[in-house]
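Case study B.
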Amino acid sequence: MTTPLRVLVHGGGIGGLTLATALAGRGHHVDVAELRERLEALGVGIVQPSNALHVMREIGVLDDCLAAGFEWEVLTVCDPAGATLARIPQPRMGDTPSANGIPRPALARILADAAVKAGATVRFGTTIAELAEDADGVDVALTDGHAGRYDLVVGFDGIGSPLRRRLYGERYAPEYTGFANWRVTLPRSPEVQGVVMSSGNLAAKALLTPISTDLMYLGSVFAEAEDFRPDPERAHEQLRERLAGFGGPIAEALAQVTDPAAVVYSRISQVTVDEPWHVGRIVLAGDAAHASTPHLAQGAAMAVEDALVLAHSLDAAGTVPAALTAWEERRRPRAMWVQGLSRAVLKQETGTPTTPEEDELLEVGIPGAAHVLVKPY
Ligand SMILES: Cc1cc2nc3c(=O)[nH]c(=O)nc-3n(C[C@H](O)[C@H](O)[C@H](O)COP(=O)(O)OP(=O)(O)OC[C@H]3O[C@@H](n4cnc5c(N)ncnc54)[C@H](O)[C@@H]3O)c2cc1C
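Model:
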């Protein structure tokens, strides 16, 4: 399609801002409606594997991501005492770097600036108040008083997606996996030159991830009751209790965790929308459609791939519904593969029984997955 389309992106997170940049850069009229008042309060950091960096290059922000983050090539696997078991070089997608750790607020700022520079309008502190679709378009009123008619509405509104609820009711509410992630941002130790993953005979995993020249984060996964929340006064001590069996670099990092307010706790949930991801001209993408556990560090990578492939599909198709069908045919198998393997890894690492299909996926494992995912998206 060459006609400029009017597109509303609901959710200005990682996927939504990537889509806004890609579409506005092609001359489409893009509004982003983001519920948060501002970008900064986004916490912790993220790994951008090579496939995600490839998308960043395509939308013109690769150098900014590398400058704000910490580029790395080798995943180090340790036993719980800290002895190195393996050093696994991470593959590249073409000549794109292997991986980059980056603070989430820095990535959000880079993507928001890119979207605005490309011509998108990013509205903060707003959401959809009313939405009515007919065969030719979608009329939307936002809570900030803005109203418009759009050719396409994209729900990049995250794992709790209100747009998903609007389309499918409660059928695809996030499923809690029984596990939660504890993370703390710390000064980077000079020896942390890439992700250091420590797991073994403990029913837990801990990771150190460099996210800038100065910073890294300590992350770990434990089984937690669904209604558990860390004690705001002693979250750091609760994390220490859980990581008591770890030595080496994990224990050294843990010694620096002294502020309960610095501990970020997230329950790990997943979403699988079994029905088509679009209804008419409204489509779900990223976590809203297929949130997975973070075990492959690929959730945001899938979201940015979704975004770029959607832009390509709109370039190639004759109508919006045809583009959405073509897009989903391309995206669903890859996103579901990531989700299936991520869930299988979580089960394997926590001693949860796996299905025969999961055992087959586990033969690929985390190192093999990196090689699969540097193939074209
Ligand atoms: C512990 C943990 C670690 C992870 N680590 C990695 C990693 O290292 N690498 C990786 O690739 N992925 C990682 N992920 C996954 C990654 O964070 C997500 O997959 C990714 O953020 C999904 O992008 P998205 O754009 O779909 O959603 P999000 O980035 O969640 O963005 C959704 C946006 O929608 C907005 N929104 C919500 N409701 C509304 C509303 N009503 N109106 C308007 N806007 C709304 C939100 O404020 C948000 O800005 C991790 C996830 C977890 C939980």
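The CA atoms of residues 48 and 282 lie 28 Å apart. The remaining cases will be described in the next quarterly update.
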